[in-house]
Amino acid sequence: MINFQKHMLQVGISDSIKYLSFQYIYITIKYYIVVERIKFKIFIFLIIINIFIICFFYKYNYVKNFPLLFERKINSYNFDKSFSIEDKEKYYSKKKFAIVKRFDCPDCGFFSFYIVHLGCISYYLSKGYIPIVDLQSFKNVYNNGNITKNNPWENFFYQPFNYTLEEVKKNAKIIKNFECVPSFYRPNEINIYYDKNNINFWHNFALRYMPLKNELINEAKIIMHKLFNNSKNILGVKLRGTDYLSSNFKKHSIPPKVEQVIFDVKSMDKKYKYDYIFFATEDELIKRKFCLKFGNKLKLLNPNVFIKYDYKTLINISNYINGNLDYIKNYVLNIIVLSNCLDIIMSRCNGAAGIFILSNGFRHTKIYNLGVY
Questions:
Q1: Cα dihedral 126, 120, 114, 174 in deg (nearest 10)
Q2: 362 and 228 inside one domain
């Protein structure tokens, strides 16, 4: 099992830390009001203690009420992936299921769902529920707005405890839907690039509770063998399309200029002498620029799966998906291949966070952290 006390989730200076800090101050003031005869020196002493606690939170970036809640809950869910449904009955006398749905943004990117789903799973586990990811029973861009009989999520990932959505709907007696999950339960998109403890925590968590389908992993291995001829000296480059730059999505990361990335790739290639450069983007214009600069050294998973953006009447990338699971499969395979590269250069996005979570680590990394819109 994952040692949740050892791998504490670090989330930076977030709203959750502010909430905890003000909560301590509130308790102290309330105590002072209720106990009117308390001496002033004791009150000052309590305030100093509160300040010390707040400084501790800000220094170490710990949200203490997250992983510690897990230990007792998750230990009760100890299991083996090879167990049958009948075997699992021994572990769960009262099975409580929570359906993981995302109503707030049904047309968000696939790895935006991935990050949010990781947070939902961690939250539901802390509450004693068995989470089930659902992309089927509500309208979203991955089922083309139609409620189908198939759960698109299960095309790419196993469910946390191998119960399928269909099995749960038919057999489960207790099913819970949570409408709001605190954001500090999910991976922090900035810390995931720089904090090894944070990366290790979510890497282990994803391996355990949201593993990729074996078919995808095997297909990615075949692709890497064909593209790289068993070479490991590969530089991975991932750039989100210039629709970010043109549309100025609020709260989304500002992408770097393509020319700057090309310069940095050339510099790293000159220094480390890579055998190949694996490049991933959905933008046709960016792909052309890289192909002109790097020629045959540049490797693409599928040279024909790219979007030609019309920047006068910009269309969001989600408009190109509309239930096209082959497009999503190609994207996920790109992410898997990138996560297996030796070094990586990326612009910030949820796909980049997914690469770090899936990866066993990189030798050298360069992340363009230019702020958000």
A1: 100
A2: yes
**For 13, which DSSP code?**
S
Structure tokens at 238: 């991932």
What is the reported pLDDT for 207?
A: 93
Among 50, 96, 51, 57, which residue's Cα sits nearest to residue 73? Answer: 96
**Cβ(38)–Cβ(32) under 8 Å?**
yes
Q: Are residues 264 and 319 in the same domain?
A: yes
Cα separation, 205 vs 214, whole angstroms:
17
Using alpha carbons, select from 324, 326, 337, 284 the residue that is nearest to residue 308.
284
What SS3 state is found at 175?
Answer: strand
Handedness of CA 137, 143, 144, 146 (dihedral sign): negative
* Among 365, 20, 87, residue whose Cα is nearest residue 199: 365
Report field, pTM of the whole predicted structure over 0.85: no
- Both 222 and 346 in a single domain? yes
The overall average pLDDT reported for the chain is: 75
Instruction: Kindly report, residue by residue over 299-321, the tens digit of the pLDDT.
Output: 998 766 556 555 444 445 555 56
Domain ranges, residue 262 = 212-368
- Tell me, yes or no, whether 126 lies in a domain: yes
Asked if 56 and 72 sit in the same domain, the reply is no
| pLDDT over 90 (residue 271) | yes
Would you mind telling me the total number of residues written for the chain in this entry? 373
CB 101 within 8 A of CB 163: no
Say which CATH number the domain at 331 has.
3.40.50.11350
Residue 4: inside a domain: no
- In this structure, the answer to whether residues 161 and 306 fall within a common structural domain is no
In this prediction, residue 308 carries a pLDDT of 57
DSSP classification of residue 188: P
Structure confidence at residue 291 (pLDDT): 93
Find which of 54-68, 80-94, 95-109, 275-289 is predicted with most confidence, using mean pLDDT.
275-289
Question: Dmax over Cα atoms in the chain, in whole Å?
Answer: 80
Q: What is the pLDDT of residue 55?
A: 67
Residue 51 and residue 76 in one domain: no
Q: H-helix or E-strand containing 73?
A: helix 67-75
| Same domain for 357 and 219 | yes
Highest mean pLDDT (candidates 66-80, 120-134, 239-253, 270-284): 270-284
Q: What is the DSSP letter of 211?
A: P
